[in-house]
Each structure stands twice: as structure tokens, then as C-alpha cells.
Amino acid sequence: MPRRYDPERRQRIIDAAIRVVGAKGIAGLSHRTAAAEADVPLGSTTYHFKTLDELLVAALRQANEGFAKVVAGRDGLEDPRTDLAAELAAWVGQWLAGDRTGVELEYELYLAALRRPALRPVAAEWAEQVAELLSRRTDPVTARALVAVIDGICLQVLLTGVPYDEAYARGVLGRVVAGAGE
């Protein structure tokens, strides 16, 4: 039987891996579970992703696009008159109000970098890209501090189940912005 051309197969495998991790956690992901979820032969997953870490890297890159879409959909950073803390708090609120499973998945993959060195560069890219974006409005040190605070607020919301409090986030982020350059 001739091999069937399937240009979407790699993407379907990534999407399937994201669904598996969303349902079963990273521990539930294997080439076999991804293949079953994507409805492709096992050999397809190992053809496109030699190791599970390669598949996780692709999944994390795709998951990182969720926050990037929120940022791209807002233009408050371009206007220097916009309250930076308020804009960031709104970003976080919009992101957390979206697909909660996607946000949880993104953080699960992000934190997996602690044990999987192959994921670290992708996790670092996300933080660097957001910090670079924020550096347009503040200094690089403050931008990195804002990324850290955003991460902390998001993790608190995800782990505690407490609803996101945009006013609280705006206040905390405002303190970091106000201390810029000190």
C-alpha cells in the first residue's frame, strides 16, 4: 500500500499531545497515547518526534501561543499614556478568562521544564519575549520583574482556585512599575 501524503499529521500529533496532557497530565503522555489520540500509527509519532521531549517542546511552543494571542489582541502597550499596570492586569484577566484548560496546560508544561532540560529554552523564550515586549515601556529589570509577578499571580489563581482579582493584580503590578529604576 503506498504511503498516504498527510501534511497535517505532525500538527494533529501536537494537538493530540496537548489534549492528552490536559486530560492526564504529562505523566500520561507517551508516543503511544499521542498516537492513539491523534488516530495515527505509532510510527508516525516517532517519525515526527524522535523523543517525548521533542513532542513536549512542540506542545509547549504551541501552548505559549495562547498568551501571545492575548497580547497581540490588545494594543495598550503601544500608547505611552496607557496605565501599564492596568493594561497588564487586563491581559492576565483576559488570558485567565479564556480556555482555563489551556492556561493550566501551559503552566504544567512550563513547570515541567524543572525536570526536563529540553523544555527550559522554550520556557525561557516565553519569559524573554514578554520581558522584551514590556521593555518598550519600562527598563529591562522592571520588565523581568513584571513577568515574574504575572507568573506568580497566575500560579496563585490556578493553584488556589480563588477567582482572579484584577484590582489586586493592578495594584501589585503598579507597585513594581512605580519602583522602576530605583
UniProtKB/TrEMBL annotation:
PROSITE patterns with a match to the protein in the record: HTH_TETR_2
UniProt superkingdom: Bacteria
DNA-binding region(s) from the entry: 30-49
Keyword entries, A-Z: DNA-binding
Record carries keyword Cytoplasm: no
Listed GO MF terms: DNA-binding transcription factor activity; transcription cis-regulatory region binding
Pfam families: TetR_C_31 (PF17940)
Domain HTH tetR-type: 7-67
PANTHER family associated with the record: HTH-TYPE TRANSCRIPTIONAL REGULATOR RUTR (PTHR30055), TRANSCRIPTIONAL REGULATORY PROTEIN (PROBABLY DEOR-FAMILY)-RELATED (PTHR30055:SF231)
Name under which the protein is recorded: TetR family transcriptional regulator
Species of provenance: Streptomyces azureus
UniProt lineage: Bacteria, Bacillati, Actinomycetota, Actinomycetes, Kitasatosporales
